[in-house]
């Protein structure tokens, strides 16, 4: 697991975090100081090969301090490989990367002292209390005892677990374990934070609370690299997004740019059975402005088989309904909506991210 491995290294105490950045990546790109990107995450031509298989090829990243990168991709797309390289747990076969101003190959100890990592599965110790977990992490970073106590109290309050500080973590709910896991990754005030599926398994209320905490960290100047299956999460949090497909970058840009790239308004047709997808797609083609995509189900927006397409200007919804009826398609629902990141991912990769691990 990323976090347990990175945390347990014998790192020197980290230096002070960089000053807070004022704004999102789009503003940072326009007016950030020359060293802002270097203080975050920078990768050039990053690649990793296992035998004859390239798990990652030619990845370029520019993530300024005080911004959020959303890294999306289906299972096996290269997300995990990229994160392992950036957190010094794997060496690249090609290219280079700097995190918090330090080279991940030449200066791994310095990188580790400047990052926090929260893996998909919580890696805190269930046999310790919440407070003891944080104090253990502080001791691994060689922080002074007074600083460890102060940071533990501060973080327990910040993640809403002050009243549960002395309970064993094994008695916590999934949402509580996720919050203490995130708190553990923040003990040393890392300027760069890597989050792998941070809200997996959380209920909507806990997810919203965690999103607000992450926004606070970014406002304070932290740089976040986020992998997620929840498209709403990426849309709300990420300043820029990189979509990986079979180890290569399929698309990159802001959420707005990516959605605009595949068209604005969409028509979505939900059908009863996957066997109806082909007929529904054929009936939708006369009204589509671009390719018609099919999904057997599992997306953020819909459950069950779904056909979507960018809609031609001037198309009326009643015309689509008549076309489907004439084709004998049993449509459960037909509606218009704005493009989503799920549409982006499906158009680019043919796979819905919710189905990815």
Molecular structure report:
The chain has two domains: 2-258, Rossmann fold (3-Layer(aba) Sandwich); 263-338, Alpha-Beta Plaits (2-Layer Sandwich). With 357 residues, it is α/β, with parallel strands linked by helices. The two termini are 15 Å apart. It has 14 helices and 14 strands. Strands 6-7-8-3-9-10 form a six-stranded mixed beta sheet. A four-stranded antiparallel beta sheet has the order 2-1-4-5. Strands 12-13-11-14 form a four-stranded antiparallel beta sheet, sandwiched between helices. Helices cover 35% and strands 24% of the residues. It has helices at 2-7, 25-31, 36-39, 79-86, 108-112, 130-140, 145-158, 174-185, 204-219, 231-237, 255-261, 277-284, 317-326, 341-349, and strands spanning 41-50, 53-63, 68-73, 94-99, 102-103, 115-118, 192-196, 223-227, 240-245, 248-253, 265-271, 293-295, 306-310, 331-338.
Rg from alpha-carbon coordinates: 22 Å
Distance between the termini: 15 Å
What's the domain count? 2
N to C succession of SSEs? HHHEEEHEEHEHHHEHEHEEHEHEEHEH
Let me know the number of strands: 14
**Strand arrangement, largest sheet?**
6-7-8-3-9-10
CATH topology of the largest domain: Rossmann fold
> Main sheet?
6 strands, mixed
Instruction: Indicate the CATH architecture of the largest domain.
Output: 3-Layer(aba) Sandwich
The percent range for strand residues is: 15-25%
SS field, number of helical segments: 14
Mean of residue pLDDT values: 81
Secondary-structure content class: alpha/beta
CATH class of the largest domain: Alpha Beta
pLDDT < 50 stretches: 1-5, 7-34, 353-357
């Amino acid at each position: 697991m990323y976090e347990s491995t990175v945390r347990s290294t014998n790192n020197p105490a980290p230096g002070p975090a960089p000053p807070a950045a004022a704004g999102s990546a789009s503003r940072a790109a326009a007016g950030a100081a020359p060293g802002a990107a270097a203080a975050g995450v920078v990768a050039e031509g990053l690649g990793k090969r296992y035998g004859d298989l390239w798990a990652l090829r030619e990845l370029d990243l520019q993530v300024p301090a005080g911004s959020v990168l959303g890294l999306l991709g289906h299972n096996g797309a290269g997300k995990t490989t990229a994160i392992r390289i950036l957190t010094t747990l794997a060496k690249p076969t090609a290219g280079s990367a700097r995190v918090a101003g330090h080279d991940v190959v030449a200066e791994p100890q310095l990188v580790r002292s400047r990052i926090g990592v929260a893996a998909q599965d919580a890696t805190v110790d269930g046999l310790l209390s919440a407070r003891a977990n944080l104090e253990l992490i502080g001791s691994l970073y060689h922080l002074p005892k007074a600083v460890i106590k102060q940071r533990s109290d501060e973080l327990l309050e910040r993640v809403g677990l002050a009243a549960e500080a002395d309970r064993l973590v094994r008695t916590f709910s999934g949402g509580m374990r996720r919050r203490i896991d995130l708190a553990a990754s923040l003990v040393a005030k890392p300027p760069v934070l890597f989050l792998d599926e941070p809200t997996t398994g959380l209920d909507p209320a806990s997810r919203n609370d965690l999103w607000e905490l992450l926004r606070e960290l970014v406002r304070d100047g932290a740089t976040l690299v986020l992998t997620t299956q929840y498209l709403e999460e990426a849309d709300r949090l990420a300043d820029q997004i990189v979509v990986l497909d079979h180890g290569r970058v399929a698309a990159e840009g802001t959420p707005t740019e990516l959605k605009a790239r595949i068209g604005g308004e969409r028509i979505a047709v939900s059908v009863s059975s996957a066997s109806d997808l082909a007929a529904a797609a054929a009936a939708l083609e006369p009204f589509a402005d671009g390719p018609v995509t099919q999904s057997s189900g599992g997306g953020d927006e819909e459950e069950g088989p779904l056909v979507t397409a960018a809609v031609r200007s001037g198309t009326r919804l009643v015309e689509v309904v008549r076309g489907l009826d004439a084709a004998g398609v049993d449509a459960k629902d037909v509606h218009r909506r704005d493009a989503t990141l799920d549409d982006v991912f499906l158009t680019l990769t043919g796979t819905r991210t919710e189905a990815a691990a």
